[in-house]
Amino acid sequence: MTLHMKLIAGVALAAASVGLAGFGTVGAAQAQTKEVQMLHWWTSGGEAAALKVIKDALAKQGYGWKDVPVAGGGGNAAMTALKAMVAAGNYPTASQMLGYNVLDYAQAGKLADLTELAKSEGWDKAIPAPLQKFSVYDGKWVAVPVNVHSVNWVWLNKAVMDKIGGTEPKTFDDFLALLDKAKKAGVTPLALGGQDWQEAILFDDVVLSTGGPEFYKKAFNDLDEASLKSDTMKKSFDNLAKLKAYVDPNFSGRDWNLATAMVIKGDALVQVMGDWAKGEFHNANKAPGTDFLCYRFPGTDGSVAYNSDMFAMFDVGADRKDAQTALAKTTESKDVQAGFNIIKGSVPARTDVSDEGFDACGKKGIADLKKASADGNFFGSLAQGYGAPPAVTNAYLDVVDKFFNGQIKTSDEAVTQLARAIDDAK
Ligand code: GAL
């Protein structure tokens, strides 16, 4: 299915459920619906396996699960489907969401108030402040953070590394040299899915590597115009162009998990992707150190450019509140936080979950987050909805996609268009 078809399927499904038995409308007053309706974009093998941890934990408590899946990382397609549902008055119990989207729905008065539950569960203490910035609106808890992902990772096939005699690349130039080695050995160096959000993740990492964390924050969190137009940004576009030489001819439109599969199978050396890629290795029974390697994107060690999946809780009718509360409480429980994130590839959203049971990449993710937070190097990824509001993210995705695919021809033109598009969008 193409992304477009999936989107249509998602919207059709959303529209079809409008006619369903009066969720949250009829006054069947206090008879409680024992089901959660959940919109999300976790459709790959690893993602589905992780989500099953939450589904199963709810099933044990007697709650059913009505799935509304809309594929597409970053959730643009899912957000379009959600918009249609909400406009029709058909609220899901909860929706997966990224950062600034949560704030938009909260501001529009569409989300529930979970503050009482948050207090009795002690979320204030367990969940770090940068996540609370997006799960608490106007003093009220409106969403539950499920995890912390980060985008500055590379995932490599170990056997291919051994074959080409590769070692961990520490700088961007090391990375190019490693990709060259793979090319000479006849292996696709860089597995990429040519969709705007995947290209933007690659660029997020290139900018962080080229300019460092302070530059990244100034440009992509503060949206500082001088930084957006700077020589460092130009150099970042030049570096992105260099990477294009290492993708295979069929990269256009490829889903991210198919790019991961290329690395899993040894058809490609490396994928640059958030740590949800680890979920695919895990799902294929591959072990870090033996079958694959995880490094921070060369030149970004010490920084964590994060996104966090939130379950935004909708302001559903009284008959659906019990199920919603169960979903929120279960998702945030320590057991589910460990079980889910071990499979998903992410770091728990709670800081009081032990790293026992996580593999080497998971342990590194947890340790990196701790250190980056302490050093002030934990900041939101622009590609993944935590750098700026959705309109700005979309403007960014568009410029990067046009540059990567040759519609914007030079780095000079790219920085001009980037600064202009972001200015128009904010
Ligand atoms: C991200 C999301 C991850 C992962 C990825 C690919 O936006 O935060 O959890 O699912 O998309 O689908």
Automatic annotation (TrEMBL):
SUPFAM superfamilies: Periplasmic binding protein-like II. InterPro entries: Bact_solute-bd_prot1, SBP. The keyword Transmembrane does not apply. Coiled coil: none annotated. Residues 1-31 form the signal peptide. It is found in: Periplasm. Keywords: Periplasm, Signal, Sugar transport, Transport. Belongs to the bacterial solute-binding protein 1 family. Part of a binding-protein-dependent transport system for a sugar. This is Probable sugar-binding periplasmic protein. It comes from Labrys monachus.
